[in-house]
Amino acid sequence: MKTLQNLLAIVFISVAMIACKTDKEPEVKTVESKTEINTNAAKKLDPNATYAKAEFGIEGMTCAMGCAKTIEKKIAKMDGVKSAKVDFDKELAMVEYDEAMVTPQTLEEAVAKAGETYKVKDMKTVTSFSDEKHDCEANCTKACCAAKTEDTKKMACADDCKKECCAKKA
What we know:
- By secondary structure, this protein is α+β, with helices and mostly antiparallel strands.
- Helix content is about 30%, strand content about 20%.
- It has a domain at about 50-155: Alpha-Beta Plaits (2-Layer Sandwich), CATH 3.30.70.
- The protein has six helices and four strands, in the order αβαββαβααα.
- α2 (about 65-75) crosses α3.
- It holds the Pfam family HMA.
- InterPro entries: HMA_dom, HMA_dom_sf.
- It comes from Psychroserpens algicola.
């Protein structure tokens, strides 16, 4: 019994000596990190700037939450971009940007940086975004028309439609 007590006393003293350090200074480790804080709220947009609107198709997206949102966030974080929206169903991106800071080529590069599989097609500058679905002509090659069948392409334009394809028919 006495040996057990002596052994326990030695173990206790050893643990106490190892656990109690005489150094009172904490160990300092330096870790380098790259922080990029660039949100829409933090961005400064020039109220006197000339803003252009661009619409373009994006090929290679496989899901709305992963692909489309990733591309949308990547474009929206760019300096000079006022707004960005990527519609997965239409495979269409709509971006409003400062012409002095952003070019169509930089938008295309941002999409490419979001993922290797994404490809920009049919980029054009527009005066207003096409928010509503429109009827496709038989020879339409836009991303929103590509998946439509022959029956849906033959649909007539609405009476109040102001799209170019319908304006010619009136």
